[in-house]
Amino acid sequence: MAARKNLHKQLSALKFSRFARRLIEARPELGEEIDQAARAPWTRKSMQAFLDARKITDRPALRTALRRLRQRVMLRVMARDLGGLASLDEVCACMTSLAELAVS
Asked: Is the pLDDT of residue 88 over 80?
């Protein structure tokens, strides 16, 4: 029951984010990130697994994969943060992992 309340809180908070609204309208499958937010944060390992699952053969493919990963990470971080599920340390660690992965 508490998880359901937090999920409702996350969805309510995200409606105030133009970025989240527009992204989910354009790519409805990203709504799964909101569902996943109640379960777990993104980790460097899960980010790397996301990239490893893509066929990245050139720079444009890498840019696309990184952009898609960033969209997913941002949505989940926002949902967890606004839903009260993430500490400041978690948010900072997640953003740092994304940045480090992007430049590596």
From this structure: yes
Residues ≥6 apart with Cβ < 8 Å to 62? 56
- Which of 16, 1, 26, 3 is closest to 80 using CA atoms? 3
Q: What is the pTM of this model?
A: 0.83
Assign residue 86 a region: left if phi > 0, alpha if psi is -120 to 50, beta otherwise?
beta
Q: Which of 27, 26, 42, 25 is nearest to 79 (CA)?
A: 42
State both tokens at 90: 């978690």
pLDDT (tens digit per residue) in 8-39: 555 566 777 888 888 888 998 988 888 888 88
